Amino acid sequence: MKVLVTGGLGYIGSHTVVELIASGHEPIIVDNLANSKQSVLNRLQKIVGKDIVFEKLDLTDKDSVEKLFTSYPFDAVIHFAGHKAVGESVAKPLEYYRNNIDSTLVLLEAMSKHNVKNIIFSSSATVYGNPSELPLEETSQTGIGITNPYGWTKYMLEQILTDLKASDDSYNVTLLRYFNPIGAHSSGLIGEDPSGLPNNLLPYVQQVAIGKLEKLKVFGNNYDTIDGTGVRDYIHVVDLAKGHVSALENIGNQNSVGIYNLGTGNGVSVLEVIKAFENASGKSVPYEVVDRRPGDIAACYADASKAKAELGWQAEKTLQDACKDAWRWQQNV
Ligand code: NAD
Ligand code: UFG
């Protein structure tokens, strides 16, 4: 299929482009480079061994998006583009609502006008807020305990897409709720490259291991978890990317909006992550325990059985694989 990949030079989008091409699809990448670099395109082309179409444009710019849809007969859209830093979204709520909501509305209007009816949307486990039950199923309650504007944009965009499907059943809408993506492509050519101080655990651990940062701050060790530190469901980004290909190839098979958790189903603590990374890298990762981070929850992991049953997809790589790949990438950045 000819697939518009918005935010396709970003962390998850770039890995998905590789897997789309490996499965015989034709991605067309759009990105405004707000949180990515043009050089990722060359690296992608090196991995797949052919040219990839890239259009630099901002999805909030209606005229550019209209031109884009006039130029390419897309079969489907995978919509990754958006701002994603939780803390920044608290400091700059308007920027987050404007970018994430507007870009999606502009995109959906262009899709409507050009009769493109298949969309896969990057949602997040953040829509579950503070979970009252674990593991999280797709039917678990959403919206209670979301603590930041970024999370609300995901919740609101899920609603907008659900309303669109309700208004016109010829749309095929898939919402993919990612748990915690980590790792990098095994080539070491693409991975996550946060600018400034990393917000997320793995990039921080990586930078401590390589000596760029002195020590990790572990945000609390008094949660009700296996060792008191936060528990999450870490999924290798290549597994996540493959989940998009499965979602694409099954789009339209659902009676209503297709909602899928993309996770491993395993909860892992911060201390377990540190140990796994030390093993994979052969480096030590010094840490100190500090206060809890505001807005954090104790534990969050998926019931991933629906994606297996309906999409034929499941995560295959281990935490160790992810740490090894992340370490290879970190040494190349
Ligand atoms: P990323 O920042 O690496 O990629 C997003 C890309 O979108 C960037 O390249 C950025 O330049 C681009 N972009 C942003 N606004 C744009 C606009 N208006 N027009 C065009 N391009 C724009 O993020 P990622 O980690 O690859 O995440 C991809 C998607 O998955 C995001 O929607 C994110 O919210 C969601 N998600 C990510 C995680 C995670 O932990 N990484 C977890 C759950 C959901
Ligand atoms: N942590 C630390 N020290 C750090 C960073 C994180 O101890 O320097 C801990 C956190 O307290 C948490 C765990 O490591 O227990 C994971 O934290 P991340 O920031 O890596 O991930 P979160 O689960 O908090 O958030 C991520 C994404 C969100 C997304 C959410 C749910 O950043 O965008 O997963 O999918 F919404």
Largest sheet: 7 strands, parallel
Q: For this entry, what is the oligomeric state of its chains?
A: single chain
Q: Give the number of DSSP strands.
A: 14
Considering DSSP H and I runs of 4 or more, what fraction of the residues is helical?
25-40%
Strand content: 15-25%
State the end-to-end CA separation. Answer: 32 Å
Q: What's the shape? A: globular
Round the mean pLDDT to the nearest integer and report it: 97
Structural class: alpha/beta
Order of helices and strands, N to C? EHEHEHEHHEHEEHEEEHEEHEEHH
Strands of the biggest beta sheet: in what spatial order? 3-2-1-4-5-6-11
What hetero molecules are in the model? nicotinamide-adenine-dinucleotide, uridine-5'-diphosphate-4-deoxy-4-fluoro-alpha-D-galactose
Which residue ranges are poorly predicted, with pLDDT under 50 across at least 5 consecutive positions? none
Radius of gyration: 19 Å
Q: Give the count of helical stretches.
A: 11
Search tags:
333 residues, binds nicotinamide-adenine-dinucleotide, 7-stranded parallel sheet, globular, alpha/beta
Plain-language structure description:
The chain is α/β, with parallel strands linked by helices. The protein is built from eleven helices and 14 strands. The strands form four sheets. The chain has a seven-stranded parallel β-sheet, sandwiched between helices. The chain has a three-stranded mixed β-sheet with strand order 12-9-14. The mean pLDDT is 97. Uridine-5'-diphosphate-4-deoxy-4-fluoro-alpha-D-galactose binds next to helix 7 and strand 8.
